Amino acid sequence: MSTENSFWTFFDWSQLDWSVVLTTFELAFWVTFILIIVSTPISWWLASGNSKARKLVSVIVALPLVLPPTVIGFYLLLLLSPSGWIGQLTDAIGLGSLAFSFSGLVIASCVYSLPFVVQPLYNAFLRVDRELLDSAATLRASPMDRFFSLVLPLAKQGYIGAAILGFAHTLGEFGVVLMIGGNIPGKTQVIATQIYDQVESLNYASAHQLSAFVLVVAFVTLGLLAILNRGQPIQRRSH
Question: Which H or E element spans position 109?
């Protein structure tokens, strides 16, 4: 086989386990969706609040950036297991244990990807012109009206960037999803853990195909982010 044919063989995705790909993208979708909702009030409070607790909250939000994924996964596993207080609560209300389930995988991924969504939103909110909000307030616009009519449109690029980063980061997670999901085929197995399985089995051809697929997705994602950053800047915040 020629070198060229060998190269393109790695990009032949007809033999991929598309159920794993679907599970991975489903996980990334739900994590991104939930984090956009959860991160909006957190980011806005951090960008506009005056509480002394902001520094502490900022440190807590940023912890996943420096903690090993296995550490995060270990403590989440303790909390979500039947003996953990979250696991006991979900079991008491009839939801069962979240450990080694897709729902638990979503929760763990939300914790791990939180700073990748909060930070772009925080930066976008910082650039919102405070004078516009003050002017709207003098016209008796409520805080909610000001947020939805002014802040959200001005922070649009931040939301797009946050969604792209949150989605892409979730696609590449390994340690957390392995600890919480258990790599169960058809249930919690995602692309990253399947690549690990293929390498462990010395099935390098399949690992190449999976890795090439993720590489292309990552390249396209970062390309979209680069195009976004070339757009018009959000209005700067007045000091």
Answer: helix 102-126
Dihedral Cα 44, 118, 70, 16, nearest 10 deg: 140
Match 């058809």 to its residue by tokens.
186
Tally Cβ neighbours within 10 Å of residue 92: 8
Q: What angle do CA 199, 218, 103 make, to 5 degrees?
A: 75
Nearest CA to 215 among 191, 236, 235? 191
Tokens of 41: 């009030």
Q: Is-contact 110 30, C-beta < 8 A?
A: no
Supply the pTM of this predicted model: 0.85
Q: What is the pLDDT along the chain (239 residues), one digit of tens a residue?
A: 444 444 455 556 666 778 888 999 999 999 999 999 999 999 999 998 788 889 999 999 999 999 999 899 999 999 998 888 888 888 888 778 888 899 999 999 999 999 999 999 999 999 988 888 888 888 888 888 889 889 999 999 899 999 999 999 998 888 899 899 888 888 889 999 999 998 988 888 888 888 888 888 888 888 887 887 775 444 444 33
Half-sphere exposure of 7 (CA within 13 A, CB side): 3
